[in-house]
Amino acid sequence: MSAVLQYDRGRLLPHIYLLFTGHFTHWTFHHMAVDTVVFCVISYLCHFFNFQNKFSNAIYVSYLSAAAVAISLVISVLQPEIKWYRGLSGINWALYGVLVVHLYYGKRRLWQGAAVTMVVIFFTLISLQLAGGHSMLVTYMGPGVVNMPLAHITGAVTGVAAACIVQRLHEKRHAVQR
Questions:
Q1: Cβ neighbour number for residue 57 with a 10 Å cutoff
Q2: Which residues are CB-contacts of 11 (< 8 A; sequence separation ≥ 6)?
Q3: What is the chain's alpha carbon radius of gyration, rounded to the nearest angstrom?
Q4: CA torsion angle 6 12 14 18 (round to 10)
Q5: Could you give the C-alpha distances from 49 to 78, 79, 111, 176, in angstroms and in order?
Q6: Contacts of residue 176, Cβ cutoff 8 Å, sequence gap at least 6
Q7: Which contacts qualify for 12-15: CB closer than 8 Å, 24 or more apart?
Q8: Displacement of CA 98 from its chain's centroid (Å)
């Protein structure tokens, strides 16, 4: 079933849904388990730190959708040698970016410090991935399968950008209401 739903460059044009479904397929059980646990934890934290109730289910789905499309398109354009893509880690990094923005704008110094620390952690992990060629959590995904730091970077940038847009809209709405 994974082969049918994975991002597949050769089938992408007639099957646009692969931009989304490829993120929910995985190469190995370990790959799936790690991605799923991280996804659940970060999703929970995003909802837990839902400062000023800016984080509705519709906005959450829009974050996931924007990240899925952005990651697939960036891989398609910047890494044309990649024929197939599977994994939720890029989406996880998008949610990580969302969480950083929510913490930063949480108006508490402690949370702002946590946000800055999370940015440092992100750059450290991405540097290690680029240097070592593999993720810290999933070191082996099968023969011929490579780590995709570009998906992680794209996800994080998309999450930060989308959360900043939501933050600005939230601020404008509250300014009008005052």
A1: 8
A2: 18
A3: 17
A4: 40
A5: 34, 35, 9, 24
A6: none
A7: 12/76
A8: 9
The rounded distance, in Å, linking the Cα atoms of 58 and 93 is 19
CA distance 69 to 57: 18
Q: Are 43 and 96 in contact (CB under 8 A)?
A: no
Hey, what are 47's tokens? 């909802």
Query: Within 13 Å of residue 22, how many CA atoms lie on the same side as its CB?
Result: 27
Per-residue tokens: 41:
């934890």
Token pair 């007639």 is at which residue? 14
**Tokens describing residue 134:** 């593999």
Among residues 29, 37, 26, which one has the least CA distance to residue 145? 26
What does each of the 178 residues of the chain score in pLDDT, given as a tens digit? 566 555 555 565 656 666 666 667 767 787 788 888 989 999 988 888 775 566 678 888 899 989 998 998 898 888 888 777 777 889 999 999 999 988 888 777 777 888 888 888 888 888 877 777 666 655 555 666 667 888 889 999 999 999 999 888 888 876 766 5
Q: Judging by beta carbons within 10 Å of its beta carbon (0-12, 13-18, 19+), is residue 15 exposed, middle or buried? A: middle
User: Tokens at residue 11, please?
Assistant: 């089938």
In sequence order, what are the beta bridge partners of 111? none
Tokens read off for 75: 């891989």
Q: In Å, how far from its chain's centre is CA 130?
A: 17
